Amino acid sequence: MIRPRRRTAALAAAATALTTLVAVATTASAAAPKPAAGTAYLPPVKHVFVINLENKGYDETWGPGSAAPYLSQTLRSQGVLLSSYYGTAHNSQPNYVAQVSGQGPNSQMQADCQTYSNFSGSGTVAPGQAVGSGCVFPTSVPNLTDQLTGKGLTWRGYMEDMGTPCRHPQVGAVDDTQKAKVGDQYATRHNPFMYFHSVIDSPSCADHVVDLSALTSDLGSASTTPNLSYITPNLCDDGHDAPCVDGRPGGLASADEWLKTWVPRITSSPAFQADGMLVITFDESDGPQSDATACCGEGPGPNAALPGITGMGGGKVGALVLSPFVKAGTVSSTSYNHYSLLASLEDLFGVPYLGYAGASGLNRFGLDVYNGSF
């Protein structure tokens, strides 16, 4: 770990070896370092897990009256809380897409892609934004899975209630997963991989995007655990519905019960204990009428003047990072959003930034998050 007081010496050493670059380090409450000077501050994370919950603002989840005490107290005491973490849009779908591609929303995405339509575009503008409208991006628009595959790394999306692997509506059809059904509470709009033709048109889609039940066996060894595990609970277990169609209370209470089952399975797995990181966050706050705030310089995009419909973002939701490389019970007040998360994963996996993950001045996780020993 490079300490701030050693920055000058470290950079001098780097000058004698042009292939070695050193990043600026910061303390837990300071601004996160930018990766322009290198990645020496990064921990040796090889297995990343991401869990997204639904539609809760920061105070509701993390405040003293939280209906999710396991998340807000038990798990919080085990990791670092990102107290200024924001969604990037309203409604749900564009937030998930942002996390894996850096693409901003358009009007159909903001409406949660009621019709599973092809994206129709007319080129790109900086930083890497496809200009147009629609939901399923062409193969010319890259996403994180393309990067991982290209580097020989592994990934899987685990979707509760998905059943049939790589399940999505027919292109051009109305999305019939917009509302939960008894025995089937899967929502395509919470599965970002289904919005890229490079994924859904691939013969390997059924191997990569699978039902949540497959996670249990995959966690059995480090060799069977993907480098990226992207996990989406169903419409009850993610806190979206309240009450749920199956009679459960839903909201944070049901999400907390789901976390009690699945988080210990992840954190006790060989991959996590060796070199893992788990990020738990929410797609957006309660909705555009209650919180459409933003951070991190987010502004109008080429396809949406107001990414949050009534404001610039998806509101403050917070995030929790658990890892052997973070210090338990700590807090970072650095501003982050879903584009920051993508950029931070790209840092760990050693791939370039996509879309708004490459925006100038965007904070990426640094020693405020990776504040443990490594």
Please outline the helices and strands.
Blueprint: H1 7-15, E1 47-53, H2 58-62, H3 69-75, E2 80-86, H4 92-101, H5 107-110, E3 120-125, E4 129-133, H6 144-150, E5 155-159, H7 197-200, H8 205-208, E6 209-211, H9 214-218, E7 228-232, H10 251-267, H11 270-275, E8 276-282, E9 319-322, E10 330-337, H12 338-349
Helix pairs in contact: 4-12
Walk me through the structure.
With 374 residues, this protein is of the alpha/beta class. It folds into two domains: 1-41, no CATH class; 43-358, 3-Layer(aba) Sandwich (Alkaline Phosphatase, subunit A), CATH 3.40.720. It has helices at 7-15, 58-62, 69-75, 92-101, 107-110, 144-150, 197-200, 205-208, 214-218, 251-267, 270-275, 338-349; strands at residues 47-53, 80-86, 120-125, 129-133, 155-159, 209-211, 228-232, 276-282, 319-322, 330-337. The chain has an eight-stranded mixed sheet, sandwiched between helices. Strands 3-4 form a two-stranded antiparallel sheet. A hairpin with a 3-residue loop joins β3 and β4. α4 runs parallel beside α12. It is globular, with a radius of gyration of 19 Å. 55% of the residues are buried. Residues 1-37 have low confidence and may be disordered. It comes from Oryzihumus leptocrescens. This is Phosphoesterase family protein. Pfam families: Phosphoesterase (PF04185). Residues 1-30 form the signal peptide.
- Average pLDDT works out at 91
Largest sheet: 8 strands, mixed
Strand order of the largest sheet: 6-5-7-1-8-9-2-10
Succession of helices and strands? HEHHEHHEEHEHHEHEHHEEEH
Protein name: Phosphoesterase family protein
Keywords: Hydrolase, Signal, Virulence
InterPro entries: Alkaline_phosphatase_core_sf (IPR017850), Phosphoesterase (IPR007312)
Signal peptide: 1-30
